[in-house]
Design brief:
By secondary structure, the chain is α+β, with helices and mostly antiparallel strands. It has a domain at 212-531: Rossmann fold. The protein contains 15 helices and 19 strands. The chain has helices at 3-9, 49-74, 105-119, 130-139, 143-149, 212-227, 233-242, 245-269, 286-299, 337-348, 422-438, 442-459, 478-491, 500-510, 528-531, and strands at 16-21, 24-27, 41-45, 81-86, 90-95, 124-129, 156-162, 165-167, 184-188, 191-195, 275-279, 303-308, 357-359, 364-366, 378-383, 401-407, 413-415, 418-419, 469-472. The strands form six sheets. The chain has a five-stranded parallel β-sheet with strand order 12-15-11-16-19. Strands 4-5-10-9 form a four-stranded antiparallel β-sheet, with helices on one face. Strand 13 (357-359) and strand 14 form a beta hairpin. Helix 11 (422-438) packs across helix 12. The radius of gyration is 25 Å and the shape is globular. 39% of the residues are buried.
Length: 539
C-alpha cells in the first residue's frame, strides 16, 4: 500500500500528516508501496510538534496559492506576501513595502482556501535542478529565493506545486489540501495573521493571544534589520561573501547596547526601583544581559548587585518532581520563597544580608558569601526563570520592582515564505553551550529540549506581557557563527537515536547559512555566553 492509503485507514484523534518508515521520516505522498508486515510504519499526527510543523508549513502554501487565485478572480496585480514571526498559534504576515491590501481581499483568500480544502487539491513534490529553480523564482519576482539557491551546494532542490502554483518550502509537506481544515485569517497591525490549531487541541483553531509588548519588540528588530539589509539568509550570506561582517557584527552589537541604555534610562525614570527582575526562556542570554545591564547602571551612578534565583533552591529532598519522577528545578516550588522574600525585605530595609550559594553536588544551600548591604544608590539585578511571576516576590511592593523579559526573537527569515523559528535559534545556542560547559553531546540536548519547552510554556510564557520592557537578544548574524560549532555535534548523532530526525532537520536548516568567523564577535557579546571567550563569568 502507499503511505497515503495506509494513513486513511489509521484511526487517530488528529490529522495524520507524516510517516516514519523504518525509523526514517517520509511524506505521505512518497511514491512507492510499503508492506506493513516488512516495514515498520508509524504515523505522525498534528498532536505532535513535528506533525503540527508540517500542518503549519502546508497551510502557508495553501494561503499563498489562494492569494494567486483571489488576485486572478479580482483582476488585481500580484501581492507579495512576506512571513514575519509567530504570535501564539498564528503567523504574522505583511505585504511588500508600498503595497496595499485591497478591501475584502482576506475574505476572498479565505474562500479560495476553503475551496482548495474541499477539492482536496494535491500537493506535488518536484525535484528540479538548482539553477532552473533559481531562474524560475527570479522570473516570478521572488528574487530572495533565487539568491538563496546561489549558496546551495546540492545540484537539485525540491519544490512543491498546487494547481500550477510553485514554491519552495523548508521541510515536509502534506500530500493534499484536504487535511488543512482548521485555519482563519484576520487583519492585525499593518498586516494580517494566519491562525491554526495547537498541538494540545489539533482540531480547533486556537484563539489569538494578543502579545503587544512582544510584537512591538519583534517589529522594532525587523525595522532595524531592514535598514541594515538583513532580512533573509540570502542577505546575510551576501554580507559574508562581501567581506563586511566585522562591521556588520559591530553595528548589531551597538544596537543591542543602545537598547540596554534605553532600559537603564527607564529604570532611572522610576525613581523607586530597587530590584530589577530579569526572566526569559532557555538560552536567551539572561546572565550576560544581567552583567551588561549592571555595567550600564554603574555608568549612570548606580551600584548593581547581581544574584541568581537558582541559589535559592530548596534542599534536594524537598524539590518537586515532574511527571517522569525527576527533580523539577523549573517549578516555582523548587525555590525557597520564604527565605528569598525575607532576605529581599531585609535588603530593602538597608540591612546586611548573607545570601546563599546553592551547592548542586550536595543538594543544599551554603552560606559562605560575603554579606550584601544596599545603600541609597544600590540596585539588585535578579535573574531567574520565575522573575516575572509575582509569586516569586510576593512580599515586595510593585513600585520597587522593574521587570524585564528577554528572549532571542529571531527576525531573520530563510526567505519571504520560510521563517527561522525562534525556538530553533535558542536550541542551537543551548546545544553549543551545553557541549562547551558540560560536555553534553547533541543527543542529550535534543532529548531534553521538549521537556525544556514544556517548562517554558508553563513557567515563563504566561507572564511575558507583564514585563515593563522586552529585550530581544537575537542577532541576525549569530547562526552563521554558531554553525561551525553545532554542525559537528549534529553529525555525531547516531542514526538509530530517537532524535536523529531532529538532528537531520537541524543540519539541513544550518546548511542555508555560510559560516562566519567567531573572532569578529566582541568579548562582551551575548553570543559569548554560548561560544565562550567572553569577559563575564557566566559558565
Amino acid at each position: 500500500m502507499t503511505l497515503k492509503s495506509m494513513a486513511k485507514e489509521e484511526r487517530a484523534d488528529a490529522p495524520v500528516v507524516l510517516a516514519s518508515v523504518n525509523g526514517k521520516l517520509k511524506e505521505l505522498g512518497t511514491p512507492g508501496e510499503f508492506d506493513r508486515e516488512k516495514d515498520s510504519v508509524r504515523f505522525i499526527t498534528t498532536a505532535q510538534k513535528i506533525g503540527m510543523d508540517v500542518y503549519r508549513r502546508s497551510l502557508v502554501m495553501l494561503m499563498l496559492y489562494a492569494f494567486t487565485q483571489a488576485e486572478k478572480q479580482e483582476g488585481t496585480a500580484p501581492l507579495h506576501v512576506i512571513i514575519e514571526h509567530s504570535i501564539g498559534d498564528a503567523y504574522y504576515f505583511h505585504l511588500r513595502r508600498n503595497e496595499q491590501m485591497p478591501d475584502g481581499m482576506l475574505e476572498k483568500v479565505k474562500e479560495q482556501m476553503q475551496k482548495a480544502v474541499e477539492a482536496d487539491l494535491p500537493v506535488k513534490k518536484l525535484t528540479v535542478p538548482t539553477d532552473e529553480a533559481a531562474r524560475y523564482f527570479a522570473s516570478a519576482d521572488m528574487k530572495e529565493k533565487a539568491r538563496l539557491f546561489r549558496y546551495r551546494m546540492a545540484s537539485t532542490v525540491n519544490l512543491y506545486s498546487m494547481n500550477g502554483y510553485r514554491d519552495y518550502f523548508y521541510g515536509y509537506m502534506v500530500p493534499s489540501a484536504g487535511v488543512l481544515k482548521w485555519f482563519d485569517l484576520m487583519p492585525y497591525d499593518e498586516g494580517f495573521v494566519l491562525q491554526f490549531p495547537s498541538v494540545k487541541d489539533p482540531v480547533c483553531v486556537s484563539e489569538l493571544r494578543d502579545q503587544p509588548k512582544l510584537f512591538q519588540a519583534t517589529k522594532e528588530t525587523r525595522e532595524l534589520n531592514e535598514k541594515l539589509s538583513l532580512l533573509t539568509v540570502a542577505d546575510l550570506n551576501d554580507h559574508i561573501t562581501a567581506g563586511d561582517m566585522n562591521r556588520m557584527i559591530l553595528v548589531q552589537e551597538a544596537l543591542q547596547e543602545q537598547k540596554i541604555v534605553e532600559i537603564v534610562q527607564k529604570i532611572r525614570e522610576r525613581k523607586t526601583v530597587k530590584f530589577v527582575l530579569v526572566a526569559g526562556p532557555s538560552s536567551s542570554g539572561k546572565t550576560t544581559f544581567a552583567n551588561r545591564l549592571a555595567i550600564q547602571l554603574a555608568a549612570y551612578g548606580y551600584h548593581a548587585h547581581i544574584i541568581s534565583v537558582d541559589n535559592y533552591y530548596v534542599d534536594r529532598e524537598f524539590t518537586p518532581r515532574d511527571e517522569s519522577g525527576d527533580y523539577d528545578y523549573e517549578a516555582i516550588g523548587a525555590v525557597d520563597l520564604e527565605l528569598f522574600n525575607s532576605q529581599l525585605k531585609s535588603m530593602l530595609a538597608g540591612k546586611a544580608v548573607k545570601m546563599p550559594r546553592y551547592d548542586f553536588k550536595a543538594g543544599h544551600k551554603v552560606f559562605d558569601q560575603a554579606p550584601v548591604q544596599m545603600g541609597p544608590g544600590d540596585i539588585l539585578v535578579i535573574e531567574g526563570i520565575h522573575c516575572l511571576n509575582d509569586r516569586l516576590t510576593f512580599a515586595i511592593p510593585r513600585e520597587v520592582k522593574f521587570k524585564i523579559y528577554i528572549s532571542a526573537l529571531t527576525q531573520l527569515n530563510i526567505d519571504s515564505h520560510n521563517r527561522v523559528s525562534t525556538a530553533d535559534g535558542r536550541l542551537v545556542r543551548r546545544m553549543v553551550r551545553d557541549f562547551r560547559t558540560r560536555a553534553t553531546p547533541a543527543v542529550g540536548t535534543l532529548s531534553r529540549w521538549a521537556s525544556v519547552r514544556r517548562g517554558e510554556e508553563k513557567n515563563i510564557f504566561p507572564y511575558q506581557e507583564s514585563a515593563d520592557v522586552v529585550f530581544n537578544s537575537a542577532m541576525a548574524y549569530e547562526l552563521s557563527v554558531l554553525k561551525s560549532y553545532a554542525q559537528p555535534m549534529l553529525f555525531s548523532v547516531p542514526e538509530d537515536s530517537p532524535v536523529f530526525p531532529e538532528a537531520k532537520r537541524m543540519l539541513k536548516f544550518l546548511d542555508y547559512f555560510l559560516p562566519c568567523r567567531a573572532d569578529f564577535v566582541p568579548n562582551n557579546s551575548l553570543l559569548r555566553e554560548f561560544i565562550g571567550g567572553g569577559c563575564f563569568a557566566v559558565d
